[in-house]
Amino acid sequence: MWKSVLIQRTLPLTVSYLLLIIVAILLDYLLHVAHLAWIGRYMGFAGTAFLVFSFAYSARKSKVISNGTLKFFLWLHCKAGWIGTLMILIHSGIHFNAVLPWVATAFMLIVTGSGHVGQYLLKKVRDEVKMKIKQLGLEVTDDNLDRQQYWDTLTVKTLGKWRTIHMPMVSILMALTLIHILSITFFLNWR
Predict the structure, then answer these.
(1) Exposed, middle or buried: residue 71 (CB in 10 Å: 0-12, 13-18, 19+)?
(2) For 20, left (φ over 0), alpha (ψ -120 to 50), or beta?
(3) Structure pTM?
(4) Who's near 142: CB < 8 A, 6+ residues apart?
(5) Per the structure, how many domains does the chain have?
(6) Domain housing 42
(7) pLDDT value at residue 96
(8) What is the DSSP track for 106-153?
(9) Continuous H helices in the chain
């Protein structure tokens, strides 16, 4: 069981995802203790810029950008996405003054988690399952796989559908972010 692809890949990634949230809470707390909470407001702008910048991967993948390798743009997408998420989590802080920003933050965490699954788990799991099946000299069918390979194959099939969650959530996140920005602009006291 402990050699399961699901356990070997999911556990470390879950810990790293939780660390992102813990670091954001810790940094927000430190900003409040240092009486620098106002910095969090500007982290929203910077974090959004990083998330917009992360769309360069989609532009490269759809050939809007023609130079550079997909591998580099995926790396850039992931790094900019994590930095942007961290900044926006600090921006969100532990303030309970509006529903829309919290809903947007929740969707951002879902999108980030979904992207995490897509980038790391799917590729690694597919490679490991193929390697295990080749080592055993088996064909890739559910009928002749033992219990371990069955669960590994099931994991790959399940993770293969991650984009059905990721892409609609990105669209919802973009809409919520736009509504949040417009409402802040509209209701902001400009004095």
Answers:
(1) exposed
(2) alpha
(3) 0.70
(4) 150, 153
(5) 1
(6) 5-187
(7) 60
(8) HHHHHHHHHHHIIIIIHHHHHHHHHHHHHHHT--S-STT--HHHHHHH
(9) 5-33, 38-53, 56-61, 70-92, 99-116, 122-136, 147-159, 163-187
Instruction: Output the six-digit token pair for 148.
Output: 């371990």
Whether residue 112 contacts residue 82, with contact meaning beta carbons closer than 8 Å, is answered with: yes
Dihedral sign, Cα of residue 31, residue 40, residue 54, residue 104:
positive
Answer for the pair 43, 112: CB distance below 8 angstroms, yes or no: no
Per-residue model confidence as pLDDT tens digits over 30-87: 999 999 988 988 898 899 999 889 888 888 888 888 888 887 888 888 889 889 989 9
Which two tokens mark 36?
A: 């620098």
How far is the C-alpha of 122 from the C-alpha of 6, rounded, in Å?
11
- Structure tokens belonging to residue 89: 């989590």
The rounded distance, in Å, linking the Cα atoms of 28 and 33 is: 9
Instruction: Please give the residue that has the higher pLDDT: either 166 or 56.
Output: 56
- Among 78, 74, 71, 103, smallest CA distance to 17 is for 78
**Helix/strand/coil for 1:** coil
Mean pLDDT, the chain, rounded, equals 79
The residue to which tokens 């997408």 are assigned: 77
C-alpha to C-alpha distance for 57 and 81, rounded to whole angstroms: 11
